[in-house]
Sequence to fold (727 residues):
Amino acid sequence: MMLLSSGIAGSGWLALQLIVNPQSLGWVSRWVPGWLPSKGTEQPSKSIHAIRAELRTQGKTVGELLELGKNVSANDRTTVFDLLLPVLEQRPNCQTDCDQIVELRLYQTVAETGSATNEPLYSLVDQIAIAGPEESFAIAPLVNAKSDNQGSSRALPLTSVTRYELSSSQGVWLNLSGKRDRGNETLAYGQIIHYNPGRFHLSKKLQWTSPTGEEPIWKQVTGGSTPELIINHTIGMEPQFEIYQIKPLNFLPSPIQLESISLAESALPQSTYRSALLLARAGLWSTSLKWLESLKGKLPTKDWSSVAQAQFDLVRWHAQVTQVQAESSWASPSQQVLANLIDGRWERALQVFQSSVIASHETAEVLKADVGRLENRIKAFEQTGSNKLEVNAWGALLVAAQKGQPAAIAWLKKLPKITTAEVAQITALTKRLDPAFTDNLLDSNASRIIGTVQPLAQFNPSDWSLPPNKEPLQADQQTWYQMTVTAFHTGDRWQSNAFSNLPTGATALWNRLGLDAAPTVQIVEWQSQGEAQTLLATIKAVRLQGDRLQLLVSGNTALVAGNTPSHTLAITESALQWLSPDVVSLGDWMQQQPKWTAKAISALTQELQQTIAISAWNDIEPLASNWTIQLANLTGGTQPDVILTLQPDDLNTLSLSPGRSPKSGWTQPKTLIFSSSGKLLYSELSVEKGQHYRAIADLGNSLPTLIVDSPKQYKLLHWSTKHQQFE
Fold:
């Protein structure tokens, strides 16, 4: 009994000391590690100069001190500041950016200063060794599981440390990060570090990698008061995010951990919930979200657990991305098809697939290249017991693209709920994948190509491709140009800036562009006053490098002797039709259209005041009345829009100041376009500065196209009703 009483009394004394003076019980830590906060008196306090000198003897340097906030001293419980000091070391066999973080040290400020130098002193409280993640971990999201190059076990360098500014009472969160180039991609990787001020303890919580090159962010995803950590693993159009929640951990020095929200286990027993998670794991995020929303609306609130809400929010986070992608405009039909399939919009994807010959052709290439993401979605949908004609159609199209039409028909007939009529309907769709269906139509198109040419002083014939029946290239006395294609017509639409789906063989590419029928190109150069000069040239060869399509062109004479521009417009004969708008004087138009004048002249005056500093419209009206304007319906309204092109002489005259000579800095015309109501739509004096309107053309679209010279290439601008601008 006496022994028991002594034990109880001793326990009470120990508890009191832990509260009043925990550092007096340093002996406890020898028997129970982590029981007490770290103690900072094992090493004497030092100045940053002394710390740097000590590390220098070890071949190391220091980074920038990072303030972590106020705290109590680990020594005497006075108020101090916690400071993080990264310790750096140079990587071996390195030429540039060689410093990597090998250690993090936690220091606290000390009240007294060094006696000799009066420098601030710092007390070492905690330290942690740092090694970056292995290469195999960092590149894992980018590597196919069957690839021979899975990466090495070499630790990648961590070069930066930043603090997350979170309004949280759960300590300080830090991010250690590095970057690595892999081909054309830059991935980011790193570690998340936590500092617990109450125990003066630094700890590693997880390592991360992101193929998008983005660093982890904290954001409230599940609607709670504590934010979640989000790591982006997205590749291409396939969204993939890891979301971590802060959870308790039974470890005194660092009593919290990061726990990933997982879809592996169902949080609720309902079959609808389990099926929704199955769809989500296959990438059908939007469909899964609809099922979860429907079930959540039917269940009592008490039956919807916090784990279920976390899984719901993880699905919702992904679905937001796939929905935005599906509703965006894409450069090619195949991208539009893929975006809709990823979002589970089976019907819409079929509509795009059937919309044109080129759409069917490009989609066939996408289906051939599928490595499981579409197949997994189709299988998951089937496993839920659902039956949908459009899903069955895409299943058959996938099989037909990869194994042929007979295999697709056999696959269809094995489906349990499909009818004979549906088999026939889907079989008809698979015929659009037949190369004979697309190639015959595509290859018969006349050449309609628009691009930009640059002079070539010399070239290597082996860099270019030409069909077997063409004469070998010879760098003779002709003038050579390199034409970079901006757009070409496929037979049913214009395709621009996304050429990676074109055939790579010289003959097939030559035929696709229609060059057998029309290998001639017109090179058009606009002079300073707006006059056009044209040179006929011949397309000799082609090359396709990724999305970049180029033609080798030869002519007999250079465009402008000794003054060849850096780039010039080039078009094939059938590419477009030039339009000649009606021309009237601005003065006459102002008299005929008083409502237009009231709005447009105000906007024009403001543009001129900002650019040339004119005083008022009345001062320049006599001159401006003689300016000419063009009238053309560019926006689809019932009345024409107005194109005003100010010539260099007009601009230089406007630049006159009293008693001074004219400013002669204007060498190019400047164009402004107004709507029929007088609203300013386009201005090369402000928003479109650096561009030069050249002409209007009919490309076979519903509205005319502006031909605009930009600093790097010629652009084809169309009026967007949705965005109310030329784009």
Observations:
- The longest strand covers residues 99-113.
- The chain has six domains: 46-129, 135-260, 271-327, 354-434, 444-575, 582-726.
